[in-house]
Structure formats: C-alpha cells, structure tokens
Amino acid sequence: xxxxxxxxxxxxxxxxxxxxxxxxxxxxxxSAEQPQGAESTKAVSAGGQFVDPYTGWTYTTEKRIxxxxxxxxxxxxxDQGSFGLYALSDNGRKTPLLNSYDFFGTSAFSLRIxxxxxxxxxxGGIESEARRTDSGVQMVYKIxxxxxxxxxxxxxxxxxxxxxxxxxxxxxxxxNLGDSPQTFTVKGIFxxxxxxxxxxxxxxxxxxxxxxxxxxxGMQNDRWIQSENGTAAIQFLFSGAxxxxxxxxxxxxxxxxxxxxxxxxxxxxSYNTVLVYNNSGIAVNWKTAYLMSSQMDVKTFYITVAEGxxxxxxxxxxxxxxxxxxxxxxxxxxxxxxxQASDSADRKNEAVELSPAAxxxxxxxxxxxxxxNLIDYIESIKSEEDIDQEEFNSLNAELDAIFEKMxxxxx
Length: 411
What we know:
The chain is of the alpha+beta class. 15% of the residues lie in helices and 31% in strands. The model is unreliable at 5-40 and 344-349 (pLDDT under 50).
C-alpha cells in the first residue's frame, strides 16, 4: 500500500466575478436514449417536456416558479439558483419560513468535490435552472466537467393523508461528470428566522427549547429540528424511514456556519456574534459519496410545515413524527424517482461479488484522507509528459478497487 500522507500539494486560488448563465445542455435526444457523456444533460419527450437523463424526472423549465401545495408555497428563481419557502394561511397570508433577504439567498447548498467547495447559487457563479415537475419543483446546478446537482422538492401525491399534505420530500442528486473517480460531499445551510423572535430558537424531539449552539453527530434520538413562532413552524426531519442521516447537524450563529466546512461551534453559547445579534441557522453536513464517472448519489430528508401554530389561532404543529411513522409503515406517499425505481428493480436480481482486488483492500486504504490523497496524486501526475504509465494504471486499479469495496459497504 502506498503512503500518500507525506505528499505536498499546491493549491492555486482564483477570484472571478460570478456569472450566471443558462444551461448549455447539448443536443436533444429522445426520452429512450441514455446520456452519451458528461455533457449530455437534457432529453426531450414526445409531449415537448424534457426528461432528465440521470433521474428520469419529466419536467418543464421556467425562470421563476411559484408552486403551492396545501399550506406551503415554494418559490424558485432559476437565474439566482435560490429557493424560498412560505407557510400559507387559509386566507392567503404568507409567512416566510426562511430569511427572505436577497430572494432567500442566505439559504443554499454547497458541494465539495475533492477538497474544493462550490457554493450552489449565483454568488458561486454556478449555472442553475428552475424546473416544474408533476409532483413539485426542482433546482439544478451544473459544474461543467465536474458535477451535476439536482434538488428535487416533491409533495405527497393526491389522495394521501391530508394531515401529511404539508410535507416536502427533498432529494439531493449528485452525478460525477468527471472522467475519473472522485469524492462528493453535500452541505446545506438554512437561515431560519421564526424562532429568533419567539424566545425559542429551536426544538427537537427530545429538547423542547434549544436556545444555545449545539452540534449533533447523530439524529436517531432528536430526529428533527424545528423553528417556530406564533404564526408558523418549519420542521427539518433528519432520521427515520428513507432519510439519509447526516454526519452532523449544527445549530449555530448564522455567520459562523459557512466559515468551515463542518462548522466550529461553541456549545452552550448564544446565537450572537460580534457583527450580528440573535441570528441563528442550521448547517447540515451529509456523508461523503465516492462516485465513479457518471455514477449518481442521492441524499434524502423531509420538511414539514404548520400554519397557525399558536393556540390562539388553530394550535397546529408540523406532522413530522406522523409522516415518519406513515412512511415506516410502508405507505407510499411520494412519487418514486423513475431512475431510482429502475435501479432498485435491477439490484434485486443482481448478485454482489467483490473482485479479488476489492477483497484485498485494507481498513487503512478505506480511510477518507488516504482515498483523497490517492485521488489528488493521480490527478497531479496524469498530465505529466513523462508519466509512468505502469504506475498510473496501478494507482487507478487501486482506486477502482477501493471504490468497489466502499460501494459494497454502502458508503
């Protein structure tokens, strides 16, 4: 096994003015065709709608989308790559559930590819597109030659329990557009506002009032994070059913959540900083995905919303616990992703047998830092004029075996 820990890496930092452009999706194909390479990202169905070649979702595109379901209004701006959430009252009153400043631009996802972070909105200069589907809306971000990232907001299908209708399934799809294996890690920052004026910033299934910074490294017990005031509540569900449990969930002062990839919090401190008073937010760091070229990873969580929370009004509360119980009982409330359903059916008949090379992989070779150093070293030598082809092939074979072993372990 090679020791890459002593390798020296030079990082070049470039500053550029953010530019947001429309997608250059490449040629149009029929809905039956599969992507023919990293840059083939859109296909057309017979009805004039588009079909996403990675997920199979059918959609139309719009510059701005306002989509209402039950007491939820979700709004997307394709040119900014931003998304916003409101609670709707029966008489049409809108209550923002996240900070609406700069068209909700303070809540966003980030994608770390290898060691480089890409903020997925207009500030990061990332191409974005808003989509409408039969079951909700989507925002898509593309980093040419590197990654395709799709955020799907799906709502319960018609005819499902009305008590659970104010729910959203959020699915985060990451596709490796590069020509070699790579690591991909997703982070979400949500600039919550409801609790800042109520005297109760957050609550969980275990803790009724969380007014101090806190970092969770497992959500099996706390299950969800809720922000509320006397008018509305939003609940983020991070454990149970088909949820992809995060590696960490951080409740912190908003300004501190983006300073480090995994926020550095001072537990038991308030949500104040030198610059801002009483400004809290949520950061979610999901587990790293190890993807071969064109391979896709999916992370899933849920959001539930309630309008008229204060007993003076209706006394409603988010139905997160009821939603998880319903999903775990086997009820299919949300539409299946076409490609995931197809892949799942294929895997049922697929026997998993590791190659001899994958079977020989050691625990040390599965260490995330070792894997990233190996990827970095391969990238550093592949463009050299006097490359040692035998070494290059050996390194790639080792990396392929590591990824094969990781997939078999569900990593």
